[in-house]
Design goal:
single chain, about 350 residues, alpha+beta, Hypothetical Oxidoreductase Yiak, Chain: A, domain 1, Ribosomal Protein S8, Chain: A, domain 1, seven-stranded mixed beta sheet, three-stranded antiparallel beta sheet, 10 helices
Length: about 350
């Protein structure tokens, strides 16, 4: 069962709770917008499911409630911020807006951000650049989390280390968002919570054996997520994970040798303006040609037509925006203590419950 609610009401509901917990109004609005945006794209583990954990982090003092990022260095084409645990949604939104402004005058602009509180689903942020016909490259990770062993090893050193790329076309943008491990930590925990095994042997137990049982991640000692590519080709995922570490952590000065508080992240964001290279029109023509050729490719026997990265997510968003967002009653149950504490009404009385 779930409650059907409009996108605007969902954002207002989340912002009200965050403000009641002490988050400054502008920051609360940014966080609410990003969480709901993730749900609209279908990233349910990174949507309003994070609201209760965020409220807990606010209560424990882990998330900064107000202020602005500290500027450590700044040039025409680069800036380096220390976020001091400000909400990632607020910091990343501000960073990409500033980069997009600078990218109108420079071919490549880059930002590096240290100690940013959890930023959520990377795919949410990409369109802020692609709508200006800019390419967006992102990499981020939490240096306090170790859940991925290096290829050939057993003990964890890295974590799922996501990276993303937004690419404009003549139509919908291409929105690439992937982990450099076989599955994210949240994804694996989702299978564990449901008592299900994974679709494949994507994990490594504490004896170094591949496994599809998420329980190995809570064993003593713990198992690990395999790098993307698994036991055969995991050196590729390991290599990509190292790239994320270099860009998001070492470059920002917020790495595994110095940071240990959960939910803090290093972030790398770079925007590229095709207009300063072969030209905007040439770029858009080439990328649209690639999209068209991919869509025209004959599907494998019994398979659906080829889908570009982000295509399904954008389709989900259109449906949610038209029909409303379903908030599971189980999610609302996790929020009930906070609703009671802050005197906030639970959605449902004025919204339609669906099966």
């Amino acid at each position: 069962m779930s409650v059907l609610i409009s996108v605007g009401d969902a954002e207002a509901f989340a912002a009200t709770l965050l403000e009641a917990a002490g988050l400054e109004q502008q920051l609360a609005a940014s966080v609410a917008n990003v969480l709901v945006a993730a749900d609209r794209l279908g990233h349910r583990t990174h949507g309003l499911a994070l609201l209760a954990p965020y409220l807990t982090q606010i209560e424990t003092g882990s998330m900064a409630l107000s202020g602005a990022p500290e500027v450590l260095s700044d040039s025409a084409t680069t800036f380096h911020w220390k976020a001091n645990r400000l909400p990632g949604a607020y910091v990343l939104t501000a960073a990409i807006d500033e980069l997009a402004r600078r990218a109108q005058h420079h071919p490549v602009v880059t930002s590096s951000i240290a100690e940013c509180f959890h930023i959520g689903a990377l795919q949410v942020y990409l369109e802020a650049a692609t709508r200006h016909d800019l390419i967006c490259l992102m990499a981020t990770t939490d240096p306090s989390v170790r859940s991925v062993a290096p290829f050939g090893g057993i003990e964890p050193v890295l974590t799922s280390n996501p990276m993303a790329c937004g690419i404009p076309t003549r139509g919908d943008p291409i929105l690439i968002d992937l982990c450099t491990s076989t599955i994210s930590n949240a994804g694996a925990m989702g299978y564990a919570a449901q008592g299900h095994r994974l679709p494949g042997p994507w994990l490594l137990d504490n004896q170094g054996q591949a496994s599809d049982n998420p329980a190995v991640l809570s064993a003593t000692p713990k198992g690990t997520l395999l790098p993307l590519g698994g036991t055969d080709l995991g050196y590729k995922g390991f290599g990509l994970g190292i790239m994320v570490e270099a860009l998001a952590l070492a470059l920002s000065g917020y790495g595994r040798t110095t940071a240990n508080q959960m939910f803090g992240e290093g972030v790398f964001v770079q925007l590229i303006n095709p207009a300063h290279f072969a030209g905007r029109e040439m770029f858009l023509d080439e990328m649209q040609g690639l999209v068209d050729a991919s869509h025209a490719s004959q599907p494998v026997p019994g398979g659906a037509s080829v889908r570009m990265p982000g295509e399904r997510a954008l389709g989900r968003r259109r449906q949610v925006d038209a029909d409303g967002l379903q908030l599971p009653l189980s999610l609302l149950a996790t929020l009930q203590p906070w609703l009671t504490k802050f005197g906030v009404d639970r959605p449902g009385a004025s919204h339609h419950e669906v099966g």
